[in-house]
Each structure stands twice: as C-alpha cells, then as structure tokens.
Predict the structure.
Amino acid sequence: MPEAWVRIRGLRFTRGEQVIFDGIDMDIPRGLLTAIMGPSGTGKTTLLRLIGGQLRADAGSVEVAGQNVAALRSVELYRLRKRMGMLFQNGALLTDLSVFENVAFPLREHTRLPERMIRDLVLMKLHVVGLRGARELMPAQLSGGMARRVALARAIALDPQMVLFDEPFTGQDPISLGVLVGLLRSLTDALSLTSVVVSHDVQESLSIADYVYVISEGRVVEHGTPEALRRSTSPWVQQFLQGQSDGPVPFHYPAPDYRTDLLADGP
Amino acid sequence: MMGLLQRLGATTLGVTERIGRGHLFLLHVLGGFPGLLPRFGLVMKQIYASGVLSLLIIAVSGLFVGMVLALQGYNTLVDFGATESLGVVVSLSLVRELGPVVGALLFAGRAGSALTAEIGLMKATEQLSAMEMMAVDPLHRVVAPRLLGGIIAMPLLAAIFSAVGIIGGYFVAVGLLGVDEGAFWSQMQAKVDLFDDVANGVIKSVVFGFVVTWIAVFEGYDAVPTSEGVSRATTRTVVHASLAVLGLDFILTALMFGDD
Amino acid sequence: MMQSRSVQIWVGLFVIAGMAALLMLAMKVSNIRAFSGENGYAISANFENIGSLKVRSPVTIAGVVVGRVSKIGFDSEIYEAVVTMNIDPRYDNLPEDTSASIFTSGLLGEQYIGLEAGGAESYLHDGDRIQLTQSAIVLEQLIGQFLVSQADK
C-alpha cells in the first residue's frame, strides 16, 4: 500500500457536550480513492473540515503531506489548501458568477495567467465533466447533478494533489449518479489524485473505493479493502452494509418503555 | 433575584463578546483593503450594488423631503415676514442633517439589508466555506470590497439626496409659494458655508456609510446559517444600523457644530 | 464581459451624478470663501464692547462684504476687545483714517463690522490698527439709559 498522504492520530473533537470523534486513527493512502462511510450524523463532514484545517481538533493530530494542519499559520495553511480541492455537498458554487467564472475563480485568484490561457484551462476542466456547453449558464439554472459536476471542475482547476468529496452521491438521479461515480474513479486514476469520499451510500462507495473506513459513534469501526469489508464478521458492519433496519443499531431512539410511556401524562 | 442578575450578566457578556468579534472582524477586513487596489473591478461591482441601485429611492425621497421642508418652513417664516430665508432653512437642514441621516437610514434599509442577506446566504450555502477551501480569504475577497463600496457610495448618495432636495425645495418655494428667486439663492449662499456645513455633512455621510456597511457585513457574516438566522440578521442590520446612525449623528453634530 | 461593462458605465454615471451634486452644494448652495486667510491682509481695531460679534462675522464697506473677523482677543491693560479682521487683498486701498463700527443686521440679526472710508491719502497695510471705532449697541444698556432719562424728567 502506498504511503499515507493524510495521517490522523488520536483525533478527538467535541462540539459542546457532544463528542463527535473520540480517538480516531486513520491513514489515507496517496493516489488512491478512500471512502469514509458511516451513518448520518457521525461527523463525516466534520472530518473533512478537520483535514482542510477549517476546524481545530481538541486532541490528536491531523497531518496532511507531512504537515500538522492545526499548527500551521494561516499563510502556510492557505498554501496547503491550494494543493487540495473540496467538493461540497450541494456544490457551493458562487451564485453571482457564471459556470465559466466559477471554474475560473481559483485560477484568477491564485495565478497571473493570461486570459487566453485561463479560457483554455477552464474549457478543459469543463470538458472533463461534460459541461463545456453550459459555460454561460448561471448556477441557479443548473440541476443538482450539474452543479456538483461544475463544482468538481472547480475543485480540480488548480490540479490539486488531493480532493475531498463531501457526500457526492446524495440526492442524485440514477443517471447523474452513474456519471459522478464514473468521474470520481476516472479522475482519481487519470490525475493520480488522492481522493477522499465521505458518504453513506454503501453500494456506490464500495464499487469505486480502493480502501474503506467505517466510522460510527466517534470511532473507526472497521477498515480495509471493499472485499475485506464485505467479509467482515462484525454484525454492526453487516447491518450497515446491507441496510437492515434493526440490529446492533436499534431502530428505536432510546426511549422509556412503550406501554408506560403511552399511559403517562405530559408531552 | 439571582436569576435576573445572572441574565443581566450573561447579556452584558454576550453583547461585549459580539462587539469584540465585530472589531476583530473589521481589522481583518481592513487588512484586505490594500489588495483591492489592483482589483478595483470588485469594488466597482459593489458600488453598483449599493450605490446605483439605491439611487432611485434616494433621489425620490430627497425630492419629497426638500419639497415638504419648503412648505413647512414657509408656514413658519411667513409669520415673521422672513420668507427669503426659506432657501437657508431648506439647504441647511438638508446639508447638515437630513442628507446624511435620512440618506444613511434609507441606505441601511435598501443596501444594508441586501448586503446582510447576501453574505448570510453565501454562508448558509457554504460559498464562504468553499472559498476558504480554495485558499481564498472570504473576508478579503467578499467582505472588503463591499465595505469599501459602501464607504464610497454613501457620501455620493447623501450629496445627491441634498442636491435633489434643494432643487425640490426651490420648485416649491419659487414656483408654488412665490418666494423671490434671487433671495432664495443669495440668502442660501450667504448663510451656508462650504467647510462648516457642506464638508461636515460629507464627513458625516462617510462615517455613516462606514458604520452602516460594517454592521451589515458583520451581521451577514455572523448570521446563523439558516433561513431563520439570515432573516433575523437582516432585521438586526436595519435596526442596529439605524440606531447607530442616529446616535452617531448626535455625537458628530455635537463635535462639529457644538462650538461656533 | 458585457455585464461588467454596463456595471462600469452605471458606476461612472453614479460617480458623476454624486460629484455634480457635491459641486452644486459647493458652488450654488454655499459660499466658497472668496479668499483664504493667508492671502488676505490683517488689520485690527479696539472696541469697548463687541456685543455678540463672532469669529467669521462679515466685515463690510457700504454693505459689501470685504473680509471676515479672524480673531477676537482681549487687551487686559486697557480692558478693551481687540478684533482682528482679514481683508480681501482686492480692497487694498482703505484710507488710514477708516472707521469701524459694530452693527446689527436687522433688529434681531447677527452682528457685523461696518467700515467707513475716510479721506486720508495713505492706505492701511497688513498689521495696522484702525483708530476710530464705535462699539456695539447693547439693547439692554439702551433701554436702561432710556428708563433713567425718563425718570429724570
């Protein structure tokens, strides 16, 4: 297995009283597609923000490309972020700019390239995601799947070494789902990207991932290749992978006894 | 009793903390001003959004305020036989007070609320977060041009408000009420001073433009990123900015016109 | 690009409109000071009582404003007010025996200095002092004198 590009050790993160992560160790290998899965509300997006340096951990360390993210000064952090792309759940396109300008945004902010070259680069990136023809549209005119593809083109505009994907598959119709799954895999291979996909869509994630982490209740429950995961003996992992409604994760939110609750007064 | 005391303490701490955050925010934003010079197009866009788009309401309000001032002033002055001073009354009220103050209140309602909603929604839709991840500082890229745009637009709007108001007052006074045209202008010119009145009015409007825009962008940036949070922040912008303008107006007036 | 061009044009128009408004306020509404203190020349005059004369009150000759009061001081040796005024250099031919009086414009108006040219051959220069002055008329004193004179009858 290749060296780790992101190395997380003993990560602890709390929000108020709530413990989101309680001692997570994780190695995200370079040039591969790693999926991080878990039920909704386990803080998967928070994990991406910790990797991107937008949040600080309470304890433990997050190292990206050998640098401890939490210890970086903001100039260094910004330099590191230029080597990362991030795809937000709903695209997070800048609504006052056209598709073309959205993809051109990082280029205009960080480079002094001539207009002609920016145009070529933007069209190349848009071509990769199949939206070269949509360059004049405004974000409000795009469907959810198209917006995510534009955001993908923007995330790879500066040719980053790593791209973080936040729930790229949620709320997509089957066609755009297929398109996105294919894009993720082919981009990772073609650009030898280090891709981190955070998702709770089991089948899609397992079908493209090289390595999988499953987290729940602030801990890594299981990790390994997709095949190894499918053979896992943990009943929790089996319940999650197969989507059974009851199992180690109960169907019912913790509550007092049904009968006494119904007979009791109050709300 | 203790509960009340605790609530008072908590409120005080909360307000103090917010004010502190507002100032740190401002410092950070001001750090982005030098970077705007080579990219003045960004500021231009904001002058358009907060200045040009507020032009209509400012001009129409100014016209009516000037006309009403002339009508009201005439009724009072006619008792003293001093209707030639109508120009002085209209122009001094507009240039010293109403232009900067009413202009700023309208600016807070029109442009300030829009700024808060825009930035609040950018936060709610993760656009600011996305910028951070693209290694672009949203305070420099998004907030700084808006603040500078507001500071530039506000004095121009206030001047337009006053000028249009004086023209409106002129039409009512000379056209409708039969005040002598020559007296209207010459009395005005004799009593209105370029530095004491006009320049001080401009200084006021620069301060108001700065404060209103500052409050607006901070409320937007500090908004709870939900639709409810953004709508609350928008309301807060209008209320706080208006109160700030009125309070500051008193202080500035005392400082500028206090000793003659 | 089209959009940003129309933005630029609008902003240009807006700035022009704002500047025009400022210019109107400066030229049409207010009095641009005809001269600044530096290029005028200063003359002073002593008064027993200046009433409510203020700095920047007008100085007139035959009703025409020729300058402004620039400083009001008090001479503690002779117990008189010393008023320094700045005169527009265009009016540099005021005779040496010009007299200065403090008048009130209208019954309730502000007070100003009225100069009256004399007949001397030589003119007042920067730093000179006007010898002939007449103090402000204080309404209360006037009424007091009137009452006293009535009582004497």
